[in-house]
Every structure is written in structure tokens, then in C-alpha cells.
Design a protein that fits this description.
Two copies of one chain form a homodimer. By secondary structure, the first copy, chain A, is an alpha+beta fold. Chain A contains nine helices and four strands, in the order βαβαββααααααα.
């Protein structure tokens, strides 16, 4: 088994990477880190990624790669089938942009570490943290829904009828939203795409409850 | 002139894109949107990008591309010289990961819209917002410094002796940090790379004070 995946079941960046590995048919050893017990801040993990963030993909030979989207691009470059990005540059730009609407504009704001820091810095209680979380989900999902619903390039999935990088981000984020019981119904195109993805084994097998460290 | 750049002088995602356009030697028409006057929430701008976020690159023919890193990858794919990513996949993964440490883990948390939302939601005053800003800069720049200082792949710039995607993110973020007078001195390798980048016209010409809407 060539790959070791250092990750956490509920981390949505970890979910992204698990989906990509599954879609590429790549086996990996699953190594879980309990973020609530700060295991990703241990000396062992920091030697793998000084940023102290999951996921990290350890390659055969010991190289460690960090940052979910950078790793997924690496997998797509080194194992091209099935492709996670379309072949044409405008299509690639569209798929990356849809993915980054989640990966850059939404997910970083609703991370566990950010919710914790809101509590420490501003005394934000559970209800305030939920308000924060919901705000940023809507800020990203409202325009994402609009783009997906109105652009003819959307198909069964975010871009045509083949699942790719944008779908990976969308699927992981819809799972992440469940932390505060946010169902995707308010965004019908996102909900429809999520349902289609849920029927693909590579996606559903990567979902948080299906991981060995799920608790 | 083929490109129209819809952007804002102080936006660091806009700075990234200006650098990439300059490095590629691509001319563009500069169209500024005063974020403080909410011009990026106008119907005109929302028709270009429903997310209401700068920058947007309008191509000849009217296609609008959003998300700075997706646009930069598009430019690199369609105008390969000079390359903004190395040729080898592990090198590309390293450069993208360094860039994403800023673009995903840092910049989204310190955006103008986030600082505003802290004020609205938690009554965060200028001092509290500065504390928040400094916290996330340190959370990202401390490990970034460690990686850049200890990894032999670092050269004059983040990856060898050619400026690329990671340098683009680093340069824009160091400018962004000046909003709260954060000098890079605390991170000597970052400071050294920033100084080297500052001497390249493509970078310094893209800096916020050198834009037509700078005020």
C-alpha cells in the first residue's frame, strides 16, 4: 500500500481527499487524528506538516504533501484517469472557481479552529457560533446555487455529467454543513447534485460516518 | 486590449492577479470597484460575478472568470511562458500548497467582509479586529516561515530561483498585512523573499499604492 492518509473523519478537507483517492482507485492506509484531543498538534504530526492541519498525504518514500486541493491536483497530474478537471482551459477555470468558492470563500471561515477562536476571542456561545457558520454558508451557497442553476455548463454534476473537483468540494461541504443541521434543500441545484453524488460509491465511502475513527 | 480586470487596488486577491498578468506580459484595462462604497454589490458587478467578490477577469468575447487562483491557473495553461508553476508534479504540489497556506488558511479569515462581520456580530472594535487579523497571520506565517527556512527547495524565491504562484500569494499577503502595520521582519525568510520580489517590476507595479484607484 503506497499511500498513507493522515486525516480526521469529520474534516471536510480530509473528505475531499478521500473522494479523490477513491475516484482514482488508489488504496491508502487510514491514519486518524482526533482533532478534539489536539493530536494534529503533536510533535509527530507537526513533523509531517508544520501547519498542524489535516489532511496530509504521505507518498511511498516518505514525502508528505499538504493542502487538500494541491494534493488533488497532484493526483490528477500523476494519475490522469479518471480526470477530475475537464480538458479545456475555460472548463478547468470554471471547475476550479466553483471549487474555490467553497475551499477559499466558505470552508476556511467555518473550521473548527475558527469556531474555537470565536469562543476564545469574543465569548461566542454555541448559538453565536451557529449564526456565524450559517452566515458564511449562505454567503457562498447562494451565489453557487445561482451559477449552477443558470449556467448551461452544469449537468448532472457541477460541470457536465462527470464528477470532478467542484463536486468533491460541494459534497464535502454539504456534509460539513450538517454539523449545524443545515440541509441543502434551500439550494435545489446543490441538493440535486449532492443526491447524485451520494449514489457514487467513491463519494459515499468517503463521507465522515463511514470512516474508522467516526465516533 | 483583450482583458478587462474588474478589481480593487487594496484587495490582495486582485494584487495576485495583477502580478500574474504582469509576469505573463499581458495588457489589461483596469476597472476599479470601491469596496468601501459597495460597488462590488452593484447589479452591474453581480452580473459579472454572482458572488460579489473581486477580482474578475473579463476575456475578449465577454467570458468572465472569477477566483484569483483559478484565473492564474487558466493564464498559466493558456500562456505558458514564463511558467508560474514548476514542471515536476511534486514541485507543483509544493508551490500550490505554499500558495494555499495563504489563499485558503489565512487570507479568507482576514478579508474586509470578515472584519466587518466581526464588528456586526460581536461588536469587535478596531483593536479586537486587529487582534483577530494578527492571530491568523501568525497561524499561517509561522509554519510558512518554518517550511521556507528549512526546505532545500526554497531558493531566492519560494521555490528555486524563479518567481511563481507561491510568491504571488506571499507578496500580496505581505502587502495585506500592512493594513495593521505588520512588518515581515518576524519571519526572516518571508521578509527576504518579499524584498527579492519587490525588485521585480511585475510585482512592484501590482502593489496596491501603484493602482489608479489607490486612495
Amino acid at each position: 500500500m503506497a499511500f498513507k492518509l493522515h486525516n480526521y473523519f469529520r474534516s471536510s478537507t480530509s473528505t475531499r481527499l478521500r473522494i479523490a483517492l477513491n475516484l482514482k482507485g488508489l488504496e491508502y492506509e487510514y491514519i486518524g487524528y482526533a482533532l478534539l484531543r489536539h493530536e494534529h498538534k503533536s510533535a509527530d504530526f507537526l513533523a509531517r506538516n508544520p501547519a498542524g492541519l489535516v489532511p496530509v498525504l504521505e507518498l511511498d518514500g516518505g514525502t508528505h504533501l499538504a493542502q487538500s486541493l494541491a494534493i488533488i491536483e497532484y493526483l490528477d497530474e500523476t494519475r490522469p484517469e479518471p480526470p477530475l478537471l475537464p480538458a479545456d482551459p475555460p472548463g478547468r477555470a470554471r471547475v476550479r472557481a466553483l471549487g474555490h468558492m467553497i475551499a477559499c470563500d466558505l470552508h476556511p471561515l467555518n473550521n473548527l479552529r475558527v469556531l474555537r477562536h470565536l469562543e476564545i476571542s469574543f465569548g461566542a456561545d454555541e448559538r453565536a457560533r451557529e449564526g456565524w457558520f450559517r452566515h458564511w454558508v449562505a454567503e457562498a451557497f447562494d451565489p453557487l446555487e445561482k451559477i449552477l442553476a443558470t449556467d448551461g455548463k452544469t449537468g448532472i454534476f457541477c460541470h457536465g455529467d462527470t464528477p470532478g473537483l467542484a463536486d468533491i468540494c460541494l459534497y464535502a461541504q454539504v456534509w460539513n454543513n450538517r454539523r449545524f443541521d443545515i440541509a441543502p434543500d434551500r439550494w435545489p441545484t446543490i441538493a440535486r447534485i449532492f443526491d447524485a453524488l451520494e449514489r457514487i460509491d467513491a463519494f459515499s465511502a468517503a463521507a465522515p460516518p463511514n470512516q474508522p475513527d467516526a465516533g
